[in-house]
Amino acid sequence: MDIKAAVTPKTGAPFEITDLKLPEPGAKEILIKVVASGICHTDVSGRDTGMVDPPAVLGHEGAGVVEEIGSDVTEFQKGDHVVVSFASCGECDNCSSDHPAHCRNYAKLNLSSHIDEETNELVSGFFGQSSFATYSRVNQRNAVKIDKDFDLALAAPLGCGLQTGASTVLNVLKPESGSSIAVFGVGSVGLSGIVAAKIAGCENIIAVDLHDNRLELAKELGATATIKSDKDVDIAGKIKEITEAGVQNILDTTGVDMVIEQAILSLDTFGKLATAVTDDGFKIPLEILALGGNSIIGTSQGDANPQKFIPEMISYYQNGKFPYDRMVKYYEFDQINQAFEESENGSVIKPILKINE
Question: How does pLDDT run across 43-58, given as a tens digit for each residue?
Answer without folding.
Answer: 999 999 989 999 999 9
